[in-house]
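DM from R.C. (forwarded with permission)

"hey, sorry to bug you on a friday — could you get me a structure for this? deadline for the figure draft is monday and I only need the backbone to look sensible"
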Amino acid sequence: MNIKMKNIYLYTRYERSWHWLQMIMIFLLLITGSEVHGVIKLLGFESAVSIHNTVGIAWLISFAFFVFWIFTTGEWKQYVPTTRKMLSVIRYYGYGIFKGEDHPVPKQKEAKHNPLQRITYLTLAALLLPAQMGTGFLYWSYNYWDAWGIGFLSLGLIAFLHTACAFMILQFVIIHVYMITTGHTLFAHLKAMITGWEAVEESVHIEEPISKRLKSVTPAKVGARKRVENTGF
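My reply, with the result:
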């Protein structure tokens, strides 16, 4: 079997727009959040707080649109977790990729993510991002807690959880940037997220020569075939 590449339109315009919008907003939130915590000095505390709050609210709204989109288009199926070939994928990224092996789960229009990506993205979209946005919203609305009847919450705990989620998102971003470089070329995945077209592996089975196929047909097989033809089955 020979492996060759073919181009398929894998990512829609909305998916690409959503991806790059996320990149910009997460970058701004990480930078301004770091300044709010005094890790860096770049924009000034008041400007950092203002930008962080504005981008945070925009992020929450854009995420709501994303959830609406995946459920109305059926794209939620891309995130259904599976363990099929999970070990093969883990082995590939841990060992096989450095040996030049083919990916065990090539991308398809109906299955854009491999098993490892599915679990990662589902955890990110269903747990980590909602937790980050929820704690951020609570932190932002602290002055209204008593009026909402949630004054019993601990601001320190909310701040800790919000910061912890931010560190986990930063780790995801670092790993994600590395994974971008693991395509068939260094910038193949990056180009796909710009154009929508991805070069994926295509399996092409080469038909055996007629002489070789004839040799594999034994007299027993011929007799069995004749009996099947005579019985009509």
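R.C.: lifesaver. Residues 2-231 form a domain with the Fumarate Reductase Cytochrome B subunit fold (CATH 1.20.950.20).
me: no worries. The chain has a mean pLDDT of 85.
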